[in-house]
From TrEMBL:
Any one annotated GO CC term: extracellular space
Domain Sphingomyelin phosphodiesterase C-terminal per the UniProt entry, residue ranges: 383-525
Listed CDD domains: MPP_ASMase
Domain Calcineurin-like phosphoesterase residues, every copy: 112-371
Keyword Ribonucleoprotein assigned: no
Sorted UniProt keywords: Glycoprotein, Hydrolase, Metal-binding, Secreted, Signal, Zinc
Domain of life of the organism encoding this protein: Eukaryota
Signal in keyword set: yes
Protein name: Sphingomyelin phosphodiesterase acid like 3A
Length: 544
């Protein structure tokens, strides 16, 4: 029934008609590539007290290892509503049609899109009873539901359509897109099933393909792209096989074959500009995610770590450049003290691998946290060697007890087509409150990274310089960074003391030893007051 529904939906729905071009065409960009193929359970073992970071000096208790900020899911019983909502997708949904606002990248450079955490909630609908607007609110009153969603709900289909309409109408000459996972909603496990999860991933894959039929897409699996959620296996499965079939238009036979075995793959992106090939490595970092009980006590789940080292070694020998993509990021969560997103053991392994092959890796891209953040991988001598980016979510969902969420966001990267070094990042967002009030989606440019932070490009050295500027006491630049972190959700929210400590240490230190030193150092600075802090900062910056 549901599969028939999705087929009818996409057979009957044509891609949105082209609107008047509101954006100038980016002349000189690398051309579009045509396809040649078509409540939390936690078990992380960690050292140190894990606490999400408050906005004052304290950090509250968070447990061992953390899911994304929206992954807390109490039990419920709305399976029928969710199935009904999926069927309702068969009805016609109008695409958000407002012309994109704001400037766009000029660029005699390469460009690619990055989207993450779509989290479609098919049950979303406007009703006087705000406890029944969406299953993802888990019975809580939706705050101010409108056509494009609510901050207590996952994405209505209308919101996702508006994001893709904006991207399509921007006329940007993107070479490819990366999509870092999580299509199903945040609902209790009993309200989903393997069939529903597969249908939703298929729905999102078809939607992307209908909007961008000639664009190469490199996807990655998220922790919600499985049922039960988080429990991604180390061998082939019904979900892996179904998703592999959905992604055949984008991936080679070899990549598909690898994906079926463990949910990861690698594939070359061949450019007609660069003599150096770009290799995409799509990791299944969900195998290392703390709530994944399937992989507990497994040294190398699905042999992915050995496979990764082999691919990177071969890329080094062949003089390839590599972009690493995945869902759950490495490093420490910027909103939870002493807490890695993946189990600490795997984090240490990956940090070691990425340091070893840092000359090969030109960038790393993740999602999962729903927030906008950067990280700089330092080597053992604290020299910057890799740039990492965590993209904000399209879904605006938060838990009822959270003070903050994020506006929906999508982003466009610029890169040097000769060597794939990252040049800039254009972050776009939808002001959800304004969109619902006006009944139209007006996606806007939130910031251009180099201009916002006064750096030259997105290379590790530049991001490290940016990180040092953010670390300065009373930094107005950090205030801007935190506003971008929550995608302009609420400019009155500030991040100070313990909150800032978590942010600053997570940006610069990805391994246990250096991160712990940073936390202890920051606490000492706060304890001894601003005067001592300023002196220490001056000494540290001289050493850096």
């Amino acid at each position: 029934m549901l599969q028939t529904c999705f087929k009818l939906l996409y057979d009957s729905r044509a891609p949105p008609a082209q609107r008047d071009e509101a954006f100038p065409r980016a002349a000189g960009t690398v051309g579009t590539q045509h396809l040649g193929h078509q409540g939390v359970s936690i078990d992380q073992s960690h050292r140190g007290e894990a606490r999400p970071c408050s906005r004052s000096s304290a950090c509250w208790q968070h447990g061992q290892g953390a899911p994304s900020t929206a992954d807390m899911e109490p039990p419920g019983g709305r399976a029928a509503r969710l199935a009904l909502g999926l069927a309702l997708l068969c009805s016609a949904l109008r695409a958000a049609a407002a012309a994109p606002a704001g400037p766009v990248p000029r660029s005699a450079v390469g460009q690619f899109w990055h989207i993450s955490d779509l989290h479609l909630d098919p049950t979303y609908h406007i009703t006087p009873d705000h406890t029944k607007v969406c299953s993802s609110s888990k019975g809580a009153n939706a705050s101010n539901p409108g056509p494009f969603g609510d901050f207590l709900c996952d994405s209505p289909y209308e919101l996702i359509l508006s994001a893709f309409t904006f991207m399509k109408d921007s006329k940007q000459q993107a070479s490819f897109m990366i999509w870092t996972g999580d299509s199903p909603p945040h609902v209790p496990v009993e309200e989903l099933s393997t069939k529903l999860v597969i249908n939703i991933i298929g729905n999102m894959s078809s939607t992307i393909h209908s909007f961008f039929p000639d664009l190469q897409v490199f996807p990655a699996l998220g922790n919600h792209d499985y049922w039960p959620q988080d429990q991604l296996p180390v061998t082939t499965s019904e979900v892996y096989n179904a998703v592999a079939d959905f992604w055949k238009p984008w991936l080679t036979d070899e990549a598909i074959s690898t994906f079926r075995k463990g949910g990861f793959y690698t594939q070359l992106f061949e450019s007609n500009v660069s003599s150096e090939p770009l290799r995409i490595i799509s990791l299944n970092t969900n195998l290392y995610y703390s709530p994944n009980h399937v992989t507990v006590n497994i040294t190398d789940p699905a042999n992915q770590l050995a496979w990764l080292e082999g691919i990177l070694e071969a890329s080094s020998q062949k003089k390839e450049k590599v972009y690493v993509i995945g869902h759950v990021p490495i490093g420490y969560l910027p909103f939870a003290r002493n807490t890695t997103a993946i189990r600490e053991y795997y984090n240490e392994r990956l940090v070691k691998i990425f340091r070893k092959y840092s000359s090969v890796i030109a960038g790393q891209f993740f999602g999962h946290t729903h927030r906008d953040s950067i990280m700089v991988l330092l080597d053992e001598e604290e020299k910057p060697v890799n740039s990492l980016f965590v993209a904000p979510a399209v879904t605006p969902v938060k838990n009822v007890w959270q003070m903050e969420s994020n506006n929906p966001g999508v982003r466009l990267y610029q890169y040097d087509p000769l060597n794939y070094s990252l040049l800039d990042l254009w972050q776009f967002y939808l002001d959800l409150r304004d969109a619902n009030k006006k009944n139209e989606s007006n996606w806007k440019l939130e910031y251009i990274l180099t201009k916002a932070y006064g750096i030259e490009d997105l290379k590790p050295e530049s991001l490290y310089e940016m990180a040092k500027q953010l670390s300065v006491p009373h930094s107005t630049l950090f205030e801007q960074y935190y506003n971008n972190f929550i995608v302009s959700y609420n400019k009155t929210i500030v991040c100070e003391e313990g909150c800032k400590t978590c942010q600053i240490c997570a940006i610069q230190y990805l391994d246990y030893s250096s991160y712990t030193d940073c936390i202890n150092r920051e606490e000492a600075w706060r304890k001894h007051g601003d005067e001592v802090s300023n002196t220490i900062y001056a000494n540290v910056n001289q050493r850096l």
